[in-house]
Amino acid sequence: MLEVKKFSAAWCGPCRALAPVMNEIKGQFNNVKFTDYDVDEAYEAATEYGIRSVPTVVLVKDGVEINRFTGMSSKMAYVNAINEGLQ
User: Fold this and answer.
1) How far apart are CA 50 and CA 48, in angstroms?
2) Any idea which residues carry the catalytic annotation?
3) Given this model, what pLDDT does residue 11 score?
């Protein structure tokens, strides 16, 4: 099972810009679990994944981190990483 974990914060401008991009990507992958975390509310999850800045997107396959994006990346970069994780 592939999971995409997005760590963001309400006060973060790039996080707000990333939200619609991730929503588009969610529509393309019905076999991938997408989870959003607000680092101010989900402190334990942010600590578990060592989140130091937002936005951060972590791809986890079968409980193991396989990829990480810190900051804003292109839609294609996320899509390519998800496709790689599905192989």
Assistant:
1) 6
2) 12, 15
3) 96
Question: Which one, of 77, 45, 65, 54, lies nearest residue 4 by Cα?
Answer: 65
Strand-pairing partners, residue 58, are: 5, 68
Which three-class secondary structure string do you get for 45-86? HHHHCCCCCCCEEEEEECCEEEEEEECCCCHHHHHHHHHHHH
- Say what the pTM is: 0.94
User: Using omega within 30 degrees of 0 as the cis cutoff, is the peptide bond preceding 20 cis?
Assistant: no
- Residue 30, token pair as written in the block: 């019905």
Give the model confidence (pLDDT) of 32-83 as tens digits: 999 999 999 999 999 999 999 999 999 999 999 999 999 999 999 999 999 9
- Number of other CB atoms surrounding residue 22 within 10 Å: 19
